[in-house]
Automatic annotation (TrEMBL):
Start and end residues of each Peptidase M48 domain: 35-217
Required co-factors: Zn(2+)
Source domain of life: Bacteria
Domain (Zinc-ribbon) ranges: 233-254
Organism listed in the record: Segatella sinensis
InterPro entries linked to this entry: HtpX_protease, Peptidase_M48, Zinc_ribbon_dom
Protein name per its UniProtKB record: M48 family metallopeptidase
PANTHER family registered for this protein in UniProt: PROTEASE HTPX (PTHR43221), SLL1280 PROTEIN (PTHR43221:SF3)
Note describing how the cofactor binds: Binds 1 zinc ion per subunit.
Amino acid sequence: MDIGAEQLQTGLNMASKVKLSPTQLPRLYNILPPICEQLEIKEPEFYLEMNPAPNAYAFGDTQTAITITSALVDMMSEEELIGVVAHECGHIACRHMLYHTLAQIIANASGMFETLAKLAVPIHYALMYWQRKSELSCDRAAAYIVGPKATASMLARLAGGPKSITSELNLEELAEQADLYDAFCKNGLWNKTLQTYAVMDQDHPFTSVRVREMLKWVESEDYQNMVKNNPVCPHCHKAIDASWKFCQHCGHKL
């Protein structure tokens, strides 16, 4: 049911953020079209928001938009930023936004109405669980577009900070932390209970888990077939022919 959430957010985006376009900060805007072409989605509106917190988010099911923050742009390399935008486009391609919006509406309404809050609790936690799983799907979209190394480093930035601090980060060791975390959770009912409580209200999985699950997926036959059947240029990330020696879009050697 349309209750105006998309129209509300569309107006706020237009009024308070910088809308990126071919003539408005084109270096940032030009990240988006090749990704949309690869994922076969209609191009969403693309916004830059001044915010000291590194973040990106997609909104809307019919009026779609992606927002990236100024802190995120400062923190990420160009390839990592492409991975972030590909992740958000993955939400749009998978039609996740309807349920993300529903989760937000329930959360907001529950805060206003005590009776509704009690009824909405199980629905809220079910949606949070589903949303965490949806983030893993979109990490796969990022890995498909920009490759597993850039996707893992993008996720690592969100865990450890900017490249000036984390440039020598061991990504495999970061992924291994997820195995240590699983073992920790299994070491006693109390540990498992505490960690279940810690994650149940999170809309994203913990970072080490995301890195591990993404790296596991790129070893799968599904990923190998996708890359083989739909190759992309590692420089401009546009579709290429496997017979090309040079990318006919950007000119880089393949």
